[in-house]
Amino acid sequence: MNNKNLYDYILGIADNSLILGQRLGELCGHGPSLETDIAGTNISLDLFGQVRSYFQYAAQVSGDENATEDTIAFMRIERAYKNVLLVEQPNTDFGYTIVRQFLFDAYHLLFLKELEKSTDATLAAIAKKSIKEVSYHWRFSSDWIRRLGDGTPESHERVQEAVTDLWMYTDELFHQTDADKAMIAEGVGVDTSKLKDSYYKMISDVLTEATLAIPEGNYFHKGGKQGIHSEHMGYILADMQYMQRTYPNMEW
Amino acid sequence: MTLEIQNIQPHLHSILESVSDPEIPVLSIMDMGVVREAIEVDGMVHVKITPTYSGCPAMDVIGDDIVSAFAKANKKAKITLVLSPAWTTDWITPRGRKALEDYGIAAPLSPEADKEALLGNKKIVKCTNCGSTETHLVSQFGSTACKALFKCDTCQEPFDYFKCLK
């Protein structure tokens, strides 16, 4: 097996959780209520836990004896991060935070249920473990979509705006890089093109129940998976990497 | 119960029993079901533990605590973290469930218990303070990854519920 493809494939999965976890972590102490604040940071913690498992594995297959979960998380340049654009979008308000979570959780859950069947035992084990956690994330975000959508006129309007705005980042979830294609061919990777219909059905059902309109736009942004990120990414990395760049090899 | 996949040599039991969960001190790691294997080979005890949640910060502490517990018994221990099979709340022993309840944390029921509470369908999570089932879910995420926050409508006390993970 080509380890470079496997390495890129693992990063393609884990970077989504890393950057989304970082975004949620920004809300620590700034959530709109104590419960949602704690929920956001709990989800962030689950995602970071999963990321650690992925990066430890990536470090093993990297062929670089100096690679560790920390160097992979903190010492790459922007172009080397392979997360989708959706997860780097800012916490504009609670509506945006929840919609971003909701649009990602649905994908994440469908993806992990397939990754669980991977011929790669490590990825299958991480997936199996993560499904249990991500089921809770999905329940949390989809419940909030219902509450906000079917809530007050104000909450309805604002969450609708977030749905309409973030919709253009959904298609990228199903784009396949060369590493993705190679790993699918080997039975390691998940053929995400087969998940697309279930994904849009899964989110449309909740949006309809929440009395929200399903956006009709058919223009979609892409680029994150190739390392071409939105203007937000640099700020996230500046925050994330400050300590590691300023004090190389620091220890607690 | 999936306990058959646990492989712990009998003479190591009592040492492992003495290590408690740092976040829920009344619960030993054995009752929690996180120890999957403990085998002594040539003076080295190989212990496999599995995380309750991927991001659980207690796992590192548990690993360190196991090493020092064995050190007190003049044994060296090596800890390996295993993900598969994934931990489930079914692995909490009956004694562990009782310890949780006595400590004020409602023991896990079914995967649907907190959802039912949220939607107001069935009331099955019992208040650990007064025993009433007139309780409601305040938040699916509580003070640690493994707990949800409930409130009792009868005695008005808030309490933790150990989320069911299957």
Automatic annotation (TrEMBL), chain A:
| Keywords on record | Oxidoreductase
Q: Which organism is it from?
A: Dokdonia ponticola
Q: What is its EC number?
A: 1.14.13.149
Keyword Transport: yes or no?
Answer: no
- GO MF term set: phenylacetyl-CoA 1,2-epoxidase activity
Q: What is this protein called?
A: 1,2-phenylacetyl-CoA epoxidase subunit PaaC
Automatic annotation (TrEMBL), chain B:
Q: Which residues belong to any copy of the PaaD zinc beta ribbon domain?
A: 113-163
Annotated TM spans:
none
The record places domain MIP18 family-like at 15-72
Family annotation (InterPro entries): Fe-S_Maturation_MIP18 (IPR052339), FSCA_dom_sf (IPR034904), MIP18-like (IPR002744), PaaD-like (IPR011883), Zn_ribbon_PaaD (IPR056572)
- Protein name stated in the entry: 1,2-phenylacetyl-CoA epoxidase subunit PaaD
